Give the backbone structure.
Amino acid sequence: MNLSFYLKKLKGLDLSRFTQTAKRVSAITGKPWRAVLLDIYFCTLKYGSGHVDYEAFRMYEKNSKQRAEILTVGKNNKLYKQFNDPRYINYFESKAMFNKKFSDFIKRDWMLVGEGVMYGETQGTALPPEARVEGKGLDDFKAFISDKEYIIAKPLGLSCGTGIEKIKVSDWDPEKLYDHLVMDSKPLVEEVVRQHETMDLLCSTSVNTIRVITILKGDVVKIVAGGIRMGQNGIFVDNFNAGGIGVVYDLNTGVVISDGYDKKRGVYKTVPESGITLKGFQIPLWDQIVQLVDDAARVVPQVGYVGWDVAVSADKGPLLIEGNSYPGQDNAQEPDLDAGTYGSIMRILYEG
């Protein structure tokens, strides 16, 4: 394990959050909260878990062998450092640069507002200046929205669905909308994805994305973990932090193998909106999704550990929403099913 990572982690602990977690777990287990707190600290040092992983993956009820299998934040950090060259990370951290580099996989109209503005920082990286993207002016924006009922507006540097806005074009004067996007720092505008009817069953108000985590090992792309995220309660984003629900699926077939769960690991056996059973749900066009991520993973081979967010559209098949060079360890992992764990990833990489 990376000792410096854990020392740094201990130094920056938010003790109040660790204590709050310990008290919640104490209420579940009946163990004194101070004893639970000591166990959280122990797991942080030994397994790199922190208080979030400890609670989310119920480490308090697992033995040392089971704990060692979990993909904790520390082990996720290890994979990130092992397979990703930091000089190329901006292709993924900048949504503008990602859309440009992966334009063949986006399969939808997009543009950047802000005439003359160059988006995409390249300083300190190995990326060429042409990797940056130039913003467009009002006339180009008017042309872009002329045939669209809705657009999606995104900030460039935020994650977890933060700041994304779905805008009805007819509600705005084009010039005021353009100014709004510039002033509100949401320069990336995209065509709305028309979702495949099968994925619509999971939530009709959000584009429900399939997280496919790949590792490029040599010249072989291996799918090592995966989950589906869906919205609920009328929200238009599917992210965990916005109240979404997740499931994990079989990596060979694309069939869901778990019940649904939310950020706090609340359980959902059926879809709140449609009532369909989650376990056994078949992701449509699975073979095409596998081919899509296999091709995408080779575009920037210097970044070999990526969590791809794939949407299945009604008219263009599978397409990329974004790629994450630091895939989260929460929404594509179910330790009780040995799905998306560190142990299962190691077996896929070195035994499969």
The longest helix spans residues 15-29. Residues 6 and 45 are 6 Å apart (CA to CA).
